[in-house]
Amino acid sequence: MRRLAVLTLLVVAVPVTAEPNAAERGEKALTTTAFIPAFWTPRAVDSAWKQWGVAAKPADYDAALRDRYGLHPAPYPNDGLPMGLRKARHLFGTGVGADCMMCHGGSVMGTSYVGLGNASLDIQGLFEDLARADGIAKTLPFTFSQVRGTNEADGFGVYLLGFRNPDLSMKPSWTNLGLRDDTCADVPAWWLLKKKRTMYATGATDSRSVRSLMQFMMHPLNGPADFTKHELAFRDVQAYLLSLTPPKYPFPIDAAKADAGRAVFAEHCARCHGTYGATPTYPNRIVPLAEIGTDPVRHRSVNEAYAAAYTASWFGKEPAGWFVDGKLLRWTPGYQAPPLDGVWATAPYLHNGSVPTLAGVLNSKARPNLFTRSFRTGVDDYDRDQVGWKVTELAAPPGADVPPVERRKVYDTTRSGRSNAGHTFGDDLTDAERRAVIEYLKTL
User: Gene3D superfamilies, per this entry (predicted)?
Assistant: First the structure.
């Protein structure tokens, strides 16, 4: 009996380690796995400063690198690299590559979050400078970003798929599937996926598609076997994305004003953006272009040639689609009104990032037309009154003599893909009603 009692105590004393669930496995896969080979050698990151026009390497080089390209500290072990960069296999050993968090790892109030769109990123400058630092003078095949904080994600998909056969093997020559580089995409927050039946600005794809999350893997050194190898891991990655929650607004909220704003929101906004609280609803509504009135370039950017190629490819043959096997691209008449969970943290606004604050979203007459900002994410850079990023309005756009890295810091709403028109639904509200709605939005 004594031996049995001791054995029982030993069994009780040994902790039972639970198997990680899908979301935990997905987080580990996303933050530790290099799904694409490296673009650059390690020396490219170490010597990028030589492209900045400075006489010596900055003293706090890690911070200077992040500031230069709009990258953020990784809130997970990452070999000393910022979010978005990762050690990966290279033709000549170990190098540095890119991962999902380059665009989907952002910062607000100086805190990094996986799943927050990176509204500071200069992806154009990053790829150009690291290539030059590696001794490669070749220009990029298309413009990766027209204005800092946005990217041409749709162009990446169109460009890369043009090199692939339906089975994702490489073709001998590139097919132009309608490439354009003026969509100026603002990256949405991953935590919104849990409510959405469709994704992308136009709502063109099933939000439960796993393979669509893997399009970034179309690096020329990844073959068809790499996609099938990692599909199971991306099912876990998707589970992780669906587990994410937004950060809470960090400043005091006027409860009485927020309560008044809830009623205004319910009357004027909930039809498209849903309701919140204990029993939330979300209509997954696609708002026609004629009704929403926002810039139409993104809507036009994915044409029939790309849709046909995507549908015929491995990406379009994913099992368990909407009605038949295959999660296909579909045409929609406009843009999807997103859920607004954590909206305070997701500035700038509209699908092209043309409106820097919530106050501007609710009053189209107050939107700046030509502006710049610090592209830092600290407390001093955040506009608590207007809710969004502080900006400096400009009288004239930068001239041709201004370096491209500085020109990309200016948002010019007269340029293609960058209009700040539309979404005028708040224009008829009174100032008091708008202030109340903004206060309520802080609570979401």
Answer: Cytochrome c-like domain (1.10.760.10)
